[in-house]
């Protein structure tokens, strides 16, 4: 599961995309099974020609690109940089320098209204939230938290607010969810942090925020309204349910779980009210950090053949066609 530790640096300038005119459908990823790109469950590896551990895919609003994190020394290890690749063939489009741990969150991190990518970085004293212009590489610092880390940011659909996870620098077991304006004002705490609340993601309509919490012992998926009220427990398993992201219509949630005594987590999809659930990937290794394409046809995610923490290479980026939904 993607337990994130920071966010994005300057990416190389590139030609801006017109987010106001998205394509009618997301381009299909490569399907060359002979080249080892396609698994038995239909998931296909995006052949990104970069070393290190590739993690946390997040779609551009037009579905043509992915932003993701590249850890240079393995899964969640060493310096990390954030960059962009094409969604069709994984061609690199612009990457920052590995001078810090710069990390994006899968899901709602690239906002069409704001034309910015949200990420966190420890380039200064500790992790803070930044907004990055993907076309120019310029970034703006949003949070300045004394004695507390700020990580895992997600942007509201209207581009006015961010939600993120925060905890004291010396205590990573009591994280809470916070909201702040994209201008840096109006900081509000949404959860109390007693359950180690992490990885918030805005719904497409902006009416709910999902997050994972260990308030009952293991990680489950919960949702709240943008003011922190109307708590809803979506998953009720004995496993760890993490890395959740919304479907484009806001009716389903994709997440990573080792439910059913799986040795390594795979992807599952559940209805937003928690009433219906299906398994989305069937892999003997690990699948996590999923993100739904804007047209709903594909789910991008990170994957490894076994435990990513024990792998020198870490994870690579895969896509799978969205299965029939519950």
From TrEMBL:
Residues 1-55 are annotated as: Disordered. Gene3D superfamilies: TolB, C-terminal domain (2.120.10.30). InterPro entries: 6-blade_b-propeller_TolB-like, WD40. Belongs to the TolB family. This is TolB protein. The lineage of its organism: Bacteria, Pseudomonadati, Myxococcota, Myxococcia, Myxococcales.
């Amino acid at each position: 599961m993607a337990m994130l530790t920071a966010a994005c640096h300057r990416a190389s300038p590139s030609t801006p995309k017109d987010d106001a005119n998205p394509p009618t459908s997301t381009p299909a990823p490569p399907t060359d099974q002979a080249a080892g790109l396609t698994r038995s469950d239909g998931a296909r590896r995006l052949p990104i020609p970069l070393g290190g551990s590739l993690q946390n895919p997040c779609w551009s609003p037009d579905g043509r690109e992915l932003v993701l994190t590249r850890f240079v020394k393995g899964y969640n290890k060493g310096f990390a940089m954030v960059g962009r690749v094409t969604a069709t063939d994984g061609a690199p489009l612009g990457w920052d320098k590995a001078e810090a741990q710069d990390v994006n969150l899968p899901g709602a991190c690239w906002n069409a209204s704001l034309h910015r990518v949200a990420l966190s970085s420890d380039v200064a004293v500790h992790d803070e939230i930044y907004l990055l212009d993907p076309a120019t590489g310029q970034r703006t610092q949003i949070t300045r938290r004394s004695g507390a880390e700020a990580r895992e940011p997600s942007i509201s659909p209207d581009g006015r607010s961010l939600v993120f996870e925060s905890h004291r620098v010396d205590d990573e077991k009591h994280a809470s969810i916070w909201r702040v304006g994209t201008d840096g004002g109006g900081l509000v705490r949404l959860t109390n942090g007693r359950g180690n609340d992490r990885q918030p993601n805005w719904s497409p309509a902006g009416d709910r925020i999902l997050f994972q919490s260990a308030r009952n012992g293991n990680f489950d998926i919960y949702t709240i309204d943008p003011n922190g009220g109307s708590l809803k427990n979506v998953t009720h398993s004995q496993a760890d349910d993490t890395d959740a992201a919304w479907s484009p219509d806001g009716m389903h949630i994709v997440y990573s779980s080792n439910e059913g005594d799986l040795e390594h987590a795979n992807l599952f999809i559940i209805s937003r009210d928690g009433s219906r659930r299906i398994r989305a990937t069937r892999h003997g290794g690990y699948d996590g950090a999923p993100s739904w394409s804007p047209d709903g046809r594909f789910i991008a995610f990170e994957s490894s053949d076994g435990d990513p923490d024990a792998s020198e290479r870490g994870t690579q980026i895969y896509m799978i066609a969205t299965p029939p939904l519950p």
